[in-house]
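Pilot study result, target chain (166 residues):
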Amino acid sequence: MKSSLRIRAVANAVNLSTAVGLLLAGLTRTRIERGPDGLLFGTDYQPKLPLAGAFTVGNVIFYRAERTFIDSRPDLLAHESGHATQYAWCLGLPFLPLYAACAAYSLWRTGDPGSRNFFERNAGLALGGYRELPTIARFPAIRNQLQRLALYKSSNIDTKSTSEGK
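Predicted structure:
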């Protein structure tokens, strides 16, 4: 195993994110198997949340499928492996609220939680099955609404001052 992957595994062990992944596997009765590069696979994950077909907690990658599916999708494994590295860079569990904030931003900008999510883009959008979507022009709509509101208020003020002046 490359030294960078060994460092990632140690970092995720020390920051307790891999321990939380193993705890989640135990609580959900998800079978754990050894994977490549110091990763662990939680196969046949059953709970409904999160909605994703695969997700990562520390060095534990959870799949809703069996090992044969995982082995047939090296692109998805590369994507989820990128998330394991992100846990190490984020010092463990702070990854979760940071990811949630980026997903919310992406959802607001594109209508999709992954398309403009920094973490998904950094792990490889296409590798994870995400599409790059165009952004929704929200700021002009907000600006236009504020301008309409300002014009409405100024016309009401003008109407009042005109009627008071008579």
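One observation from the pilot: DSSP finds seven helices and four strands in the chain. A full batch analysis is planned for the follow-on phase.
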